């Protein structure tokens, strides 16, 4: 068979697989929104379409999330080379608020028209569209935890933003920036990969990866130490509700011969569970025990253990810990 034909067949089946994987992620609301135009004449036209197709606030909020995540791409170049902060002068508080609103309106329209943004554009556009469909929405700014190096960081920084929406008298957490995809360091580019887990995310999972500048959520204090020193969790952790029952710290002080006990919810002996040693070789966990809807196993701390350890379940990364060798 000619090489070109083989390549075409491979590409064809790869597209089918990717489309099938995306279809499995989509709710009925997402499937409707996925058929929308990729561009609208105005945000008001998009909001009118959402109001026409959906009746409940929950479905409208989800529709806004889906359209943005499916159509607005993360502008990684703008992230690497942020524009200079635009200053302005004013003589009255009313003039200040008017100019701030104009800057925000420009940010919204730029994200909507160019279909590119960083988190500020994503959150501003989400808030704008949510309010157009009649949903109360706010923007929260804070820190994010995405890399191994974030485990055990000393301080938080204000480097991210997300939304909360009020639906049925309950505030819901939303990060539409992370819903649209992720950065693939091996390819050096953003990968568009719609992910529903950052819509109405469980607060326990959400605040393992987010820390608000205020240090509070709905008046409740959030532990900065838990955020900084907790383990790093991944999208599949949230999607599969793989709560990390043990260890509760992301920083593990061990000496040679110690055994690290790990317990993860919603996995069983039938799952393939392994970690990578410091040479990036997979090591299958030995003698796992099923325990109250979880799987418990031990990892031997030896010379093959690197500075970080990531647990995989069926090839999906679930949790990472920082190893401190005594």
Features:
single chain; alpha+beta; Arylamine N-acetyltransferase fold; Immunoglobulin-like; 6-stranded mixed beta sheet; 4-stranded antiparallel beta sheet; 11 helices; 28% strand; Transglutaminase-like
Structure, described:
- The structure is a single chain.
- The protein is an alpha+beta fold and 326 residues long.
- It folds into 2 domains: 203 residues, Arylamine N-acetyltransferase fold (2-Layer Sandwich); 82 residues, Immunoglobulin-like (Sandwich).
- 37% of the residues lie in helices and 28% in strands.
- The chain has 11 helices and 20 strands.
- Strands 11, 13, 15, 16, 19 and 20 form a 6-stranded mixed sheet that branches. A 4-stranded antiparallel sheet has the order 5-4-3-8. Strands 12-14-18-17 form a 4-stranded antiparallel sheet, with no helix packed on it.
- A hairpin with a 2-residue loop joins strand 17 and strand 18.
- Helix 2 packs across helix 4, helix 3 crosses helix 7 and helix 4 packs antiparallel against helix 7.
- The longest helix has 23 residues.
- The N terminus is likely disordered.
- Pfam families: Transglut_core (PF01841).
- This is Transglutaminase.
């Amino acid at each position: 068979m000619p090489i070109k034909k083989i390549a075409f067949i491979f590409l064809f089946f790869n597209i089918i697989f990717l489309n099938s994987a995306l279809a499995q992620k989509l709710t009925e609301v997402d499937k409707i929104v996925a058929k929308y135009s990729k561009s609208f004449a105005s945000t008001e036209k998009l909001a009118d379409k959402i109001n026409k197709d959906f009746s409940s606030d929950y479905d409208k909020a989800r529709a806004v999330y889906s359209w943005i995540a499916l159509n607005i791409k993360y502008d990684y170049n703008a992230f690497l080379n942020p524009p200079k902060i635009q200053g302005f002068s004013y003589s009255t508080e009313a003039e200040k608020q008017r100019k701030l609103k104009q800057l925000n309106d420009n940010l919204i329209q730029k994200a909507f028209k160019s279909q590119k943004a960083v988190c500020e554009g994503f959150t501003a556009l989400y808030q704008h569209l949510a309010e157009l469909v009649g949903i109360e929405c706010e923007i929260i700014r804070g820190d994010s935890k995405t890399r191994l190096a974030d485990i055990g960081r000393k301080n938080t920084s204000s480097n991210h933003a997300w939304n909360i929406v009020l639906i049925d008298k309950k505030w819901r957490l939303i990060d539409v920036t992370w819903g649209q995809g992720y950065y693939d360091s091996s390819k050096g580019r953003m990968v568009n990969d719609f992910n529903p887990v950052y819509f109405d995310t469980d607060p326990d999972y959400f605040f393992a990866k987010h820390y608000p500048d205020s240090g509070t959520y709905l008046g409740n204090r959030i532990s900065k130490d838990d955020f900084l020193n907790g383990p790093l969790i991944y999208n599949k952790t949230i999607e599969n509700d793989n709560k990390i029952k043990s260890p509760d710290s992301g920083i593990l002080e061990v000496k040679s011969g110690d055994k690290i006990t790990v317990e993860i919810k919603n996995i069983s002996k039938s799952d393939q569970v392994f970690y990578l040693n410091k040479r990036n070789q997979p090591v299958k966990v030995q003698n796992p025990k099923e325990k109250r809807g979880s799987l418990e196993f031990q990892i031997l701390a030896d010379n093959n253990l690197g500075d970080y350890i990531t647990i995989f379940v069926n090839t999906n990364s679930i949790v990472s810990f920082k190893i401190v060798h005594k």
